[in-house]
Amino acid sequence: MFKNKFNSVIIVFIVLFANAIKAQNNDFTIVSGNQKVGILVEEKEPKVVHIAAKILADDIFSITNQRLNPDSYRDAKNSSGTVIMAGTIGQSKWIDNLVSKQKITIADVKGKWETYKIQLVENPTATIKKALVIVGSDRRATAYGLLEISRMIGVSPWEWWADVTPDKKDNLVLNIQTKTFGSPSIKYRGIFLNDEDWGLQPWAAKTFEPETGDIGPKTYAKVFELLLRLRANTIWPAMHKSTKAFYSFPKNKEVADDYAIVVGTSHAEPMLSNINAEWNHNTMGEYRYDTNSATIKDFFRKRAKETAPFENIYTVGMRGEHDSPMIVGEDDSDSQVKLLEQVITDQRAILKKATGKEPNKIPQAFIPYKEVLDYYQKGLKLPDDVQLVWTDDNYGYIRQLSNLKEQTRSGGAGIYYHTSYWGRPHDYLWLNSTNPVLMWEEMAKAYEFQSRDLWILNCGDIKPHEYNIELFLDMAWDMSPFTQSQSVKKHMQNWASREFGTQNATSITDLFFDYYHLAFQRRPEFMAWNQVEPETKSGATALTQIHYGDEVSKRIDAYQKLMDATEKIKTAIPANRQNAFYELVEYPVIGAASLNHKWLYSYKNKFVAEQGRGSAAFFAKKSAEAFERIQKETHYFNNELAGGKWKNIMSMAPRHLPVFDQTTSTNAVTGTKAELKLALESYEMEVNHKTENSYADVLPVFNAYVKNQYYIDVFMKGTGTVNWQAKPKADWIKISQQQGTLDNNKNSQQRIWVSIDWDKVPQGENKKEAPLGHDYQLIPPSYKVNSAIDFVSKDTLITIGVTAFNPKFSELENYKGFIEDKGYVSINAANYSNKKDGTAAKWEAFEGVGYAGKVSVALPRTANSELDLKAIKANSPVMEYDFYSFNFGKVNVKVQAIPTHAFYEGKGVRCAVAIDDADPVILNFQTFGRSDEWLQNVLKNAAVKSAEQIVNKAGKHTLKVWMVDPGVMIDQILIDLGGWKNSYAFPPETKM
């Protein structure tokens, strides 16, 4: 027995020792004391490889203050010691020698798209002891491999663009495991610089590249470096009239080629042209193909000849000038389609002649954007080798994807997606407010439907879209880690850990998820409740101030909580990351919160002024302070941050729309005598204590089954001070504040919360069934317990009635479902009581998106749609929600979904609902074109449809929601039994 134990110990020791030797052998020292590696790159390697080697050398210097050889390459024969050796298959004799000596294998790299391997090689030459070898299948792959080392040593891709200053280290030692990276999930991956008028262009022209006075080769070199660090390969250059066309600077295309960046152009820029800047009406005539095709073709020929030596993706087809429809003489669909087909035929002939290649060997993209999608749907014939680049609706919802036939096209498909947009119904150009989980869901859907050839993100001015850019491009590089909605949170946590330390990662991630949750409910730029194109004045908010806890105040508090959390986290951020924290976290959070506060406090001001409250002045002041905070932070961003590096990069008012203006304020008309006043939740007017039987002197009924709380605003009219006390007349009434002093400053109003101590309140009757009456006026007295609160000042007594509904129904003992409260039942869709999978599909939860923060999604997306009602009941997956009603009769079931679009023609965005055993009623959330319904949906990020149902008796019931189409995302449900008051969001859940 002892011998066996001894042998076991020896075996364990040997294994541990072997592992230690192995780990030691996998260590690679880049810098240690005065020792440092060399970087070997052969001179004949493509320029991008030398650029990447120089970037890596600079990154090592920024960490260690040790400068590697400045030229980034040496002769391997004369090198010794330890080196980083990078080479491209077919370009590097060093790599060929290592292969021939069987030091490395390249079968998993050679011939593949943008694939690289990193491994350690002992004694690669007679003089070199150890080499960290990077083998690339092509020029970009080798560059990516070199910059992978930058990631490994702790340099963020945002080192320059977001001032993520690396931590200083004396020694740099990596543990290298042989690994192959690639091929990427998406062939072409990149960004579109768009709406650059207010940030990138003035910054480049006045601050970074004044010698050019524009976005020129120096600026593009920095953009291209960022793309390489993010393993991207494609650019759609800036194209507004404020910026000279990309090809007007000959150096631009050379810099793009130096960095191995593929140049493409947007849907409005055929054949790499910039119609806005390059089409001269005086010398070229109208931009109309039906009347001026010869001139247009000459223009296309010139650009095709100029760009033929470089890597490009040519956009084929044609639209009008500056994002407008193409002008045609005959206003009928057939003529438009035929003309567009002729345009494409002519363009392909031009490309063949200019490049000497067959068209099917030239990357081309057709982008069915806006009206072009209509042409495509009406039968436009597109060559099979052209990429179909689908688009979102400008607000994050992809309009259409490839159907089963289109998925077999040799040209494949891609996606053009927005996190920044100028246009109808409203711009969102200032901050990044696109929910990252929504972006993941849409791109995962695109990937599943074979849109894998080109992903382009419209990221506006780059700043402040940094995180979403990285998420988008990381998914494009490798979709395999992004299998579920929770993958986004994990990705964000890793991102925050890299940028701000593991100790801050969770708090920053939680902060951002709250930030995006609020922005999903309403983007900051939409808070004026106005529209553009045509531009309208600011309007009345749809947020209720009198029901469901006061949506305006709740949003104020939520954003204040974000600001407070940001300030707290900031104190824990290391000094070398403070600028990065400001750019990546602080400015967007403070900006969004302040823009919301500006409008929310303004809505408060107008609301309370109508009641004559003295607090109107306080809310006006808070609104003004929020506006001033935006000014202050933007001034700091542009003039002081990073020593003025970002001067002119940030505008707080893109296009100077009404939402960015300072709000107006309303003064309350009050008397001179200071008076105590009250306003209660659910009442628009104040309590009139001088009138008997005031309709507003009783709080809404407190329901024991949902444990409500309601607010009372204690305020003052007139000038002076008022001391007040609140005196509950029963020990079961709880109030958040029992006394206070009102004045004409910040204490002009105080909100107290009233709740019930349900352990002390007398029990109502013990009955089997509940009473009727959603307004609770019909509830028998025996079910109610009544009392009051007296509010007392020097010369005023106001009594507020308190009613608690506290029966004990045997039917509700141990009940776990939802319950009616004041005439409605509110449900978060992911909180079903029961669910049953279908024969080929099921409901699953996506976390981090929707008003509820979690939505139910019908999956898989490849499942068949089902429209037959009998088959739906028999075979479709169903979610069931148990609820208890105190009423019966006709009810309205409202279902709120994420406003996605059908995958392709023939599919829909549908579910079916029924109460108890009724036949399913199909609800369709699909919208078409830019209809008013679509407009409201994207402003609110919600699509609501309703079905009339019958609740045949008071008591227990079950609401059922079936899948009709896969992919539909159900967010919230409201069963309105006649008591729901209009609100922006559905009321909080009414769950036992």
UniProtKB/TrEMBL annotation:
One of its GO terms (molecular function) is hydrolase activity. Residues 1-23 form the signal peptide. Keywords: Hydrolase, Signal. One of its GO terms (biological process) is carbohydrate metabolic process. The keyword Signal applies. InterPro entries: GH115 (IPR031924), GH115_C (IPR041437), GH115_sf (IPR042301), Hex-like_dom2 (IPR029018). It comes from the Bacteria. Residues 817-989 form the Gylcosyl hydrolase 115 C-terminal domain. This is Glycosyl hydrolase family 115. The lineage of its organism: Bacteria, Pseudomonadati, Bacteroidota, Flavobacteriia, Flavobacteriales.
